[in-house]
Amino acid sequence: MTEEPENPPTESETENGQDGPAEETIEAQAQDDPESKGSSEPSAEAEPSSEAEDVPSAEEPVDEQDEVDEDATADESQEVDEPVRIPSLKGLIGRKVGMTQIFDETGAALPVTIIEAGPCFITQIRTHAKDGYNAVQLGLEETSQKRLTGGQLGHLKRTNAPPLKHLREFRVRHLGDLEEGERITVQVFQVGDRVDVVGTSKGRGFAGAIKRHGFHRGPKTHGQSDRERAPGSHGAGSAPGRVLKGVKGPGHMGSVRVSSQNLRVDLVDPERNLLGVRGSVPGPNGGLVLVKERRKQ
Description:
Layout: H1 11-16, H2 20-32, H3 34-40, H4 50-54, H5 64-78, E1 91-103, E2 109-117, E3 120-126, H6 128-131, E4 135-142, H7 150-157, E5 164-171, E6 183-184, E7 194-200, E8 205-207, H8 209-213, E9 251-253, E10 257-269, E11 274-278, E12 288-293
Antiparallel strand pairs: 1-2, 1-12, 2-11, 3-4, 3-6, 4-5, 7-10, 7-12, 8-9, 10-11
């Protein structure tokens, strides 16, 4: 029979094929060798931290469009649009274009008269101290110098105004900041303003009392044959023995100054110098009209 050794090896020693003291020697050598220790630990350069990935690099390209947008925004903030100066005078010279209709927000048709008003030039300012009243003279429609007299050209050159065909005067209560040579457009009016339009009515020539004044015709029977549209008596015979002044009868009709008062402004088109007022305006299409602030406040 064989004898067993006094200290048999353990299972771990048998699997490794080494005994306990040999493993302790290897571990001690590894601790003493710095190169083997450095190779076993992970390098900081090989694995950068997540914080370094979040920080953008200085060499990364910058979007050019963002720089352009920022510059444009800065320029817009620096550039401030100057407000358009609107004169205090509410008056213009214009020409009647014709009638039409426009529609409001509710779809209702509104009859309006289109007026091509302005641009006008202030050719003279009359003051109460010098002329006894306050007024502003406006001019419309540039024309050739050959069509004006020397006095008219001298009057316009005084204010550096171009040769103008029509001159009209507007009475004002306060002159405000108006200046001679200033240009006036339809921007002085706004939708909703009330204005008076002055023009010359259409000429009808000689007309009878029925057409001119709205007289009623006479009877067609009872023995008369030629007095149907006659005006009738103009007064007594012996006293006063004459026709009083102002008696209505046949005569020249039209071609007189007519004012349409308190018309509402429904359209303002500064680009085409157009003004639309509610209702009718005296005069034919193409006739000269004056548009001014309403007299009855």
